Amino acid sequence: MVYTIGEMAKRLGIAPSTLRYYDQEGLLPFVERSSNGNRIFKDADYEWLQIIECLKKPGCS
User: Are 2 and 41 within 8 A, CB to CB?
Assistant: First the structure.
């Protein structure tokens, strides 16, 4: 299944701007883009993003 940035942010409980920031910082090299430039997230991306969120909790940058 594929998700928009808003749908993925909602699944993770974070703001879409957080995902944009992660992408700008190079943490999401796997995220594909649609023909019009929108980010496309997949189920496997969700698992990776959960890891990033877990690492943030103890203070990892």
Answer: yes
